Amino acid sequence: MSFRTNLIKARSHITFLVALGLGLALVITLENTIDNRKATTPAASEKVASTPVENQSPLSAFDDITPLPLAITGQSAENDIAYAHIAWRYFENNTHPETGLVNSADKYPSTTMWETGSYFIAVVSADLLGLIEKSEAEARIEDALATLTDMRLFDDILPNKAYNVQTGELVDYGNRPVERGLGWSALDIARMVGALGQVQNSYPDLAPQIAALMNKWDLSQMVEDGQLIGGNIANDKLRRDQEGRVGYEQYAAKAMMLFGFDMFNAYRAEDHLMVKEVMGQPIPVDARLHRNITPAFTVSEPYIFDGLEFGFDARSHRFATAIYKAQEARYRETGVLTAVSESHLDEAPYFVYSSIWGGGAPWAVMTFKGERLDSKRTVTTKVAFALDALFGTDYTRELIAAIAPLGDPDRGWPEGIYEIDGSTNGSVTTNTNATVLAALAFRAHGPLIRAHQ
To answer: Which domain holds residue 107?
Structure first.
């Protein structure tokens, strides 16, 4: 085969690597810009800096945080493969062969772009861990890509907020068909775009299908002035709203930058950052309301995803270190294991945000509507596995020891342990099992974006 033929076959992979390089260069430039704007650290007596002082960046509160070293070992630990097989069982049980899509939760035939992105991350991770052959990984993703390309979009613009995984129909959050749809979630789609970048990096032969899918989506509709814009229905009219809060916003910005989108304002955390002290740690909190309802919250999820999938940048590494240390400190002070994030529940209201700080207080557990529900705080499986893979401390090993008995070889990993009484939060979901796989792959290979390079 000639050099020219090989070059033509590799062009999509080369294009992605160039885009990745440009995106990473932009991240480095942004970090340098942020570092150059740092000013003096607030006085030690100031426990809260809710509003940045003029000419003083709130990022300076993290100057004294020494990022924890990463625990990449280059190999799987003794129990890792057994744990990974449990997680992969979930995807074997919940993939629909007619569409190639996966249930968002065990036996619940609905999905979002976020959860479909998680499925793609799970496939890449399972391949890296040797649970499946590369041919199966490519076939699974190719089936899902074909369905995604054929699915009807909201207003012919972007993917709807939810789909039936059996039929590919637009549905509401109760999995009931809706003709027009609900609108689009820019954060969910950005998560999917990031996963497509991971797939293209790992399986360059799928680049044409990925290009066809992304050409169908009008991604320019969800990026404006370097920010993410969601589409929501209000009084039967499309309303465009800025999406993302500190943590999720920067993670999503990185995903979009993989494909060359200008995400400067979304990547800048300091514009809307306030710092709350929790257990002696500076915790990054967004100054804007969450969904315009309740004070924003900080959870572990966007930071662990950033580390596992893209690799930390200097800022997110410090943020993640402070978030981890606050959770360990709570355990050391109270004896209560702590590994919090957003999580599904096995009973109503079925979903909560367990925060490090949120809704105006530390360790608040909030419902979608902004109500406190601290009785549902969960030691989450995904955070335990992710923190152990990222940092590998004595405390994270304690978390794994507590979570390990929950693994069900027939169903997968449940959400975790209810703090209030030690019972199992028995909801079994795509996001948790995908995160377990990504964490175990990270331990052996490092960030997914570099694993196949």
So the answer is: 3-451
